[in-house]
Each structure stands twice: as C-alpha cells, then as structure tokens.
Predict the structure of glucose-6-phosphate isomerase.
Amino acid sequence: MNIINHLSIIDTANTIDYSNGEIKGESLINATKYLKELPNIFEDQQSFENTDPNKIIYEVQAFLPVKEGLEGGLFFGKTIIYPGKIGDEYFMTKGHFHEKPDRGEFYWGIQGEGILLLMDKNRNTWAEKMYPGSLHYINGHIAHRTINIGESILSFGACWPSDAGHNYQEIMDNGFSARLKEIKGKPQLIPVR
Ligand code: PAN
Ligand code: ZN
C-alpha cells in the first residue's frame, strides 16, 4: 500500500473496464478452470469424457487488497464463463457456500445471459436471471453457482467480505437439489431425485 501524504490527490492503483468487468492494477489473482478440474459437476458422464479435458470452462479474476481471512476487508472479482454444454447442461461454476454463513455477497451481470442458482441449507433451490445490469444480493447462508445459458461469454462482477471463505465440499459431495438443463431449447430447473 502507498504511503498517503496529507492533502495529496492521487490515482488509484486499480481500474475497472465497465464493458467487460476486467480489473487492472495491483493485488490481482487469476484462476482458470479447466473441464478436468470439474469432475463432479456435470451429470452426463459420457459427454464429460468425450469432451477435451483441457477445455476452459471459466476464468476468475480477483482484486485482493487485503489478506484472505481478514475481518472487515472486501474482495472484488470478475468471472467469465464460456458458452457451451456438457450433455444438456450448460457450462457453470463449481458453486459454494461461504465458510462463514453470515458473510453475504453482491453479484452483478456485465455481459451475456446467465442464471444464478441459489440453494438454502434445507436444499430448497431457486434461480435468478443474469443479464447486463442485473444485480444480485446473495445472503451468506445461501449456496451460489452461475451458469452461462447464452451463446456468448457470460461475465459478472462480485464483491464479498475478505473473511467469508469458501466451502466447496458440501456442493462437491451433495450437489444442488436441482439441475439447470436445456429442454426443447429452453433452460429449465429439474429436481434431482
Ligand atoms: C465468486 C466465485 C466465482 C467462481 O467470486 O468464486 O464466480 O465460482 P466458484 O468459486 O464457485 O468456482 C464468489 O462467489 N466468491 O465468493
Ligand atoms: Zn461466493
């Protein structure tokens, strides 16, 4: 962090491109998620095995101005999900609960068309439509996963507390209680038996 002199007017170290959500500057991390890293996400095992394991499904960029785990700080991110399907399911994120269930999050749509899949602790699942300008408040108790239902890139922004933490295990083990499938050309939520 810069030392700020009294009465100085300075440039910020980071900028954001509103057209695609890209963050530039310092304290950034980038993560690329390949199909081979998402073995428990898609239902259709045959299609999963028939698709290039090195296909990029999504990319996450995050501005981490403070240490992960610090109470009171904020993180700011951008996720891109590429268009595509495995069987009748669209490309999607792993999805997670926050480790600290009282830490919420904002998402906002930037490019493309998507679905934000949400599930409470009782496994009730519902969804919100994502599009450029959509704004989503995710209560800290709610699991969240994003899905690209369009034919171009889905990009969205996110802001969450630096001590929220991510619990991926619950979703890895038990999934969501519904799957978003393309049926007769339209996305539909289908309950998992
Ligand atoms: C987001 C997500 C991001 C990728 O920044 O981490 O969209 O999804 P997964 O973490 O489920 O792979 C967020 O919700 N942070 O808390
Ligand atoms: Zn989150």
In short: The chain has one domain: 15-191. The pocket of zinc ion (ligand 2) is lined by residues 96, 98, 105, 144, 160 (CB under 6 Å). The CA atoms of residues 12 and 96 lie 31 Å apart. The mean pLDDT is 97.
